[in-house]
Amino acid sequence: xxxxxxxxxxxxxxxxxxxxxxxxRETDKAWLVNDGVREVWLPKSKAEKNSDGTFTLPDWLASExxxx
Length: 68
Hints:
Structural class: mainly beta
């Protein structure tokens, strides 16, 4: 099951969430982010870092990480 993904490379915009968070640590594959309440790892393969300091990620991932 792809949980919100239509294919490996395509996600419906309605299935995405933007969160405001700052990067605490970064590896080649993930960001450790803090949203002011918790710190969670976001895989770079499933999330996008935006220039305005937000991250865009699938709803299922944001829910799984407790961000929504």
